UniProtKB/TrEMBL annotation:
Keyword DNA damage appears in the UniProt entry: no
ATP-binding in keyword set: yes
Name this protein carries in UniProt: ATP-binding protein
GO molecular function: ATP binding; protein serine/threonine kinase activity
Start and end residues of each Histidine kinase/HSP90-like ATPase domain: 20-126
Domain of life (superkingdom): Bacteria
Gene3D superfamilies per record: Histidine kinase-like ATPase, C-terminal domain
Keywords: ATP-binding, Kinase, Nucleotide-binding, Serine/threonine-protein kinase, Transferase
Pfam families: HATPase_c_2
Length: 130
């Protein structure tokens, strides 16, 4: 009988798309960072809040949040999934706009970020923190 090593499941938070989603996601990130001994979770909480808010406002269906440490460089990664096909982007800078700056802020605060469409529909927006 073959014994295959299984990778541990990454905990995920499944959220209903509503106004409480971002707060629940912030608490989830704070708890994960505390487990890892990362005392400064401000950027992680801000990033997940922005990504979840985008999923709530522009996406579709339930929102799934995963937070894990990249096994290659040991940096935290935040992933937010939703069922919408519309891909997020950073709009042209408009100093008179009253919204639409969340991804610009995320891009300035993280090492890298991106979005990938899923074969089964929807997308994952992710950010790797410093």
């Amino acid at each position: 009988m073959s014994t295959a090593a299984m990778a541990p499941e990454i905990p995920r938070l499944i959220l209903e798309p509503n106004e409480k989603a971002a707060g629940r996601a912030r608490r989830f990130v704070a708890a994960r960072f505390a487990e890892w001994g990362i005392a400064d979770d401000d950027i992680g909480r801000l990033v997940v809040s922005e990504l979840v808010t985008n999923a709530y406002v522009h996406g579709e269906g339930r929102i799934v949040v995963r937070v894990f440490v990249d096994k290659h460089d040991r940096l935290p990664v935040v992933e937010v999934w939703d069922g919408g096909a519309k891909l997020p982007f950073i709009p042209a800078l408009d100093c008179t706009a009253t919204c639409g700056r969340g991804l610009l802020l995320v891009a300035e605060l993280v090492r890298e970020w991106g979005v990938r469409p899923l074969d089964e529909g929807g997308k994952v927006t992710w950010a790797k923190l410093h």
